Amino acid sequence: MSSSGRSMTRTGGRAATTAVIGGDYALAVGNPGTPLPSGWKWTCLTDVARLETGHTPSRRRPEYWGGDIPWVGIRDATGNHGRRIDSTEQCTTTLGIENSSARVLPTNTVCLSRTASVGYVVVMGRPMATSQDFVNWVCSDAINYRFLKYVLLSERNSFLRFASGTTHQTIYFPEVKAFHVALPPRSEQDAICDVFGSIDNRIENLRRANATLEGIAKALFKSWFVDFDPVRAKAEGRDPEGMDAATAALFPSEFEDSQLGPIPKGWRVEGLGKCCDNIRTQARPRSLDADTPYIGLEHMPRKSIALSEWGSAGGLASGKFRYQRGDVLFGKLRPYFHKVGIPSNEGVCSTDILVIRPKSPLWFGFVAMHLFSDGLVSYATQLSNGAKMPRTNWHDLAAYKVAAPDDACVSAFGEVAATLLGRVHSGIAAMRLLSELRDVFLPRLISGKLRLPEAEAETAVA
Fold first, then answer.
1. What are phi and psi of 173, to 5 degrees?
2. At the N or C end, where does the chain have fewer CB atoms within 10 A?
3. This prediction's pTM
4. φ and ψ of 378, to 5 deg
């Protein structure tokens, strides 16, 4: 692709606006003409990157879905903001692409959500298509795709100034086509990206380590309390794998029938509510400090227990539920039953989230993992009701039947789970520290107000 991308823009529609709307650091609608460092230039983004949009193949045609072409939707962006993604929640087919306005875009395409949830940024880790909720840039050699990503990340607060609309804020194409970026020479772009790339790599490594730790906890829970592997081993005259003798002695060596089918002998079938409660302590906005952590469904990632993101209670307009360390948060709206989180702090959460507290700390790991299990998600989905926003309730969740061991057995699992969770929370603290470091330097470097040698010295000290 040549360094000029404007003639290759593939969005159609109205021409670029002639208005000028300033951004915060390195992006504007139109050329703001503000001073830049020597060698930098306000550049129309479509001069250095091909602008593309997306489309949604018909949902009425099942043959358009379930293929091998990743399709980026809003949930992919909100759950992976600032990250490179290699997979998506949904995939389309070649037939779906051929019969819609969607296009498969190349690896390293930079995507910005422009409507509904405005301002989320992801980078394609492989060829993908997107919904119409995104504007996408295929970068030429004149602009490093990572540099564009960092510019967009730094301008998160500007996008609502670029947007309009009453029901849903949307950045329309006349404004997008007029985007101008403060662009340094390519060599300086690359060097800036290397600084932030090293921080991002460290964050990603911590995220992967946390995912591994979570995976260990989930696998152990499934082995002990779903598949009953230790009991099966003892029933067959084998020593349970990877288990010391003292822990193995906590499990029986035979099964007995129950309403759930065969369960370890001596265990009891009871509702999940026997070992945990729903806490409904409300906090009114006026009683909260502005810096009180706030967790909404948007802060709870899919299929991940660790909560690494949260907002602030400042400006909240309605009452929220209080939570504390040791609680488990459960999204009660369908399709958010997969959203289960263990907070590392105390704060407040949306009333669309159930705050569940084990009746004894010994049962924390057992409760948390059951809430996260596929069986409970399926159960909650079947019992949810409501026309516009189907939801579950605590009464139904409390009745969910589990095979409950004695305190000694569940305590042994709880100790392992607590150790793993402690390491996860330490990783989250490290990730947030690195993110704060990046966010301090990102606006200054991306706008040229801080030059690279000074930034490298400061980040090295940090």
1. -65, -30
2. C
3. 0.81
4. -65, -40
